[in-house]
Amino acid sequence: MTILAVEIRRFDPQTASDAEWRALNALNNILEAEAFPDDPPEKLESTIKYVRDIPAYVDSRRWHAWQGDEIVGRGLFSVWSPNDNRHIADFWIGVRPDMRRQGIARRLLAPIVAAAEQEQRRLLVTWNNDRVPASDSFLQRLGAHMGLETHTNQLLIADVDHDQLRAWQERAKERAPEFHLGFWEGAHPEELIPAMIEARKGMNLAPIGSIEWEDHITTPEELREQDAARARRGIIRWTMYVREGDSGPIAGYTEVFWDPQYPERLWQEETTVLPPYRNRGLGRWIKAAMLEKVIRERPQIRYVRTGNADSNAPMLKINYDLGYKPYMAERVWQVETTQVRAYAGPGAA
Length: 349
Description:
This protein is of the alpha+beta class.
């Protein structure tokens, strides 16, 4: 069999042809099937929306490895905020299983490290999972340091203890009678944006291991851009929060995201309670109230997934008590840009 040469090309989501999108969708489905073997294939429409509809403040660049009319590898470079963490950029590389160990990942690193140097990013951060053991070897050869161990945890709706959900909510109301729940669907209400910016600072307290992330302070513009990007993708966001009285600070919140194209799956994203309000059952209250609402109003959902640092004992306690179980182990790595340059080669660009 003749092996065709592999060509690395920059991908432009705004000008990509139908054939390019189909090739990317095909590769995505091969790689995602390794990580999430229980999930349905990603629809072509979802691939296009996910790649195109990102917030304006995100600088995202993509390169693909082509063999004939197929994409056999993908590389992504992203800078998420112009206001902080200006020493870091994120990157991801994925190569089709049958094309691994042929130098494709190294070649995809070349434009990524060039972008990091252009943006003066000292560190590159990436994630991998235990479903693709070869990625550990690649990152170790690269000289990367594994700085944080995490898991995707999964809750089967059929396993939920409904009596426990009610008990958690009643108990919290007894312990914190001056607090009440609030809820919205979709974009942040303008009048709540200042309070939510303060509440989101609680996420900076989540464990980060030895990864050199700085605290991130969300801006109103970022919230609006995030909301607009998700709306363009057709993703529905629910937010449940708890606050003192009718107008006091937001003490904590939780949010979930649902894509109607994949009706059986729900992603549980950020949950936090600010330090002055902890140890009153507020975290259990908002999580239980949200889950009860999901079960009542979205009966098509069969399972919920969330990501947690293995060292985040308080949140893991809540999630495991709810019935979440480990689904996939993941790790966060960081590497000096100079080490990536040495690995990719001095002339690589």
